[in-house]
Amino acid sequence: MFPTILMFVFSYLLGSLMPGFWIGKLFYHKDIRDEGSGNVGTTNSFRVLGTTAGIVTLLLDLLKGTAAGLLPLLFNSNINPMLVGVAAIIGHTFSIWIKFKGGKAVATSAGILLAYNPYFFTLAIAVFILVLLLTSMVSMSAMVSFSFAVVASLFYHDPILTIVTMILTIFVFYRHRTNISRIKNGTESTVPFGLYHHVRKNRYK
């Protein structure tokens, strides 16, 4: 029983690590919570700190999800990695290091999928990239790719995978509720590439 509790605690602590926040503080002397969207995740790291910091944040957020998903292997446990990974999602969203605030857990959730099923992860990432190239919106890409993951999970006949991806999708939509309002209003932030960005840029020339 104690090793199981310890595993979930480690997963939470891994998720609580906030690379975007710490990179901003240590190398740029900025608190990314005070700029851009105020989020401490990957997207705002790109927006506030730049491409290099954004890429490092993305990789570290992804890695901590993968590490959490691999904890059952380390502990020689039969507990489903997806269940252990949920603790990392909670950690990322309610980090003990920054007064229980956090990010939207998209990259961390993807990291857990990578640990559980690399092929499934690849499919979800492919959908994310495709939607991003069409809409130029990270928020839209995250919501569509997670919705796709729920549908795709049904073909795996893996109830745990389906249940956890459904929970993660609901969570992602909830965390993006303000983004949904901005998408409806046509005011959502976009990346400087993709079809939508190209069309909008030409429209206002």
UniProtKB/TrEMBL annotation:
It catalyses: an acyl phosphate + sn-glycerol 3-phosphate = a 1-acyl-sn-glycero-3-phosphate + phosphate. It is a multi-pass membrane protein. It comes from the Bacteria. The keyword Phosphoprotein does not apply. The chain crosses the membrane at residues 6-28, 48-73, 79-98, 119-148, 154-174. The gene is plsY. Its main location: membrane. Catalyzes the transfer of an acyl group from acyl-phosphate (acyl-PO(4)) to glycerol-3-phosphate (G3P) to form lysophosphatidic acid (LPA). This enzyme utilizes acyl-phosphate as fatty acyl donor, but not acyl-CoA or acyl-ACP. NCBIfam families: glycerol-3-phosphate 1-O-acyltransferase PlsY. Keywords: Acyltransferase, Cell membrane, Lipid biosynthesis, Lipid metabolism, Membrane, Phospholipid biosynthesis, Phospholipid metabolism, Transferase, Transmembrane, Transmembrane helix. Belongs to the PlsY family. This is Glycerol-3-phosphate acyltransferase. Pathway: Lipid metabolism; phospholipid metabolism. GO terms for molecular function: glycerol-3-phosphate O-acyltransferase activity. It is found in: Cell membrane. Pfam families: G3P_acyltransf. It comes from Leuconostoc aquikimchii. Its EC number is 2.3.1.275. Probably interacts with PlsX.
